């Protein structure tokens, strides 16, 4: 186990692709705490978050070879987050089909958003802070998390047209502040 603790996440994924259980355990140890926090920011249902976490790491185990063999270098941590975000959207979509309200499970932006904004230029950070929360949520989902309009609509529990309108309003507001 000591050998895997010194590896970066991309090396761990390559080892997981070869069936290395220790590498999987180490990747899980490193990524599961922040992944759970990020998922809980978007969904208050702990049972659903636990289900998404389980499905995410099962997908990591099964698809590690696809990531490890990809010609483009990418962040393994980003890859894990992308899987989790898509699994959450799928779970919320399933709930919507079962006539439950996915938007009731969402939370408002938190300290992670503020930390991200602090990393951006002062002007950009200030512009993002001045956006209405619903506009920031759309930008976060589409730009930072890489979700499609449809996935963002499901995640936020609003129609696709609303997502498009909010994205446009956010771009206009940012453009005005930054020019």
Automatic annotation (TrEMBL):
Alphabetically ordered keywords of this record: Membrane, Sigma factor, Transcription, Transcription regulation, Transmembrane, Transmembrane helix
Sample GO molecular function, one term: DNA binding
Recorded superkingdom: Bacteria
Transmembrane spans: 63-85
GO process terms (BP): DNA-templated transcription initiation
RNA polymerase sigma-70 region domain ranges (all copies): 27-97
Pfam families in the record: Sigma70_r2 (PF04542), Sigma70_r4_2 (PF08281)
Residue span(s) of domain RNA polymerase sigma factor 70 region 4 type: 125-174
Matches recorded under PANTHER family: RNA POLYMERASE ECF-TYPE SIGMA FACTO (PTHR43133), RNA POLYMERASE SIGMA-70 FACTOR ECF SUBFAMILY (PTHR43133:SF46)
Similarity annotation: Belongs to the sigma-70 factor family. ECF subfamily.
Protein name (Swiss-Prot/TrEMBL): RNA polymerase sigma24 factor
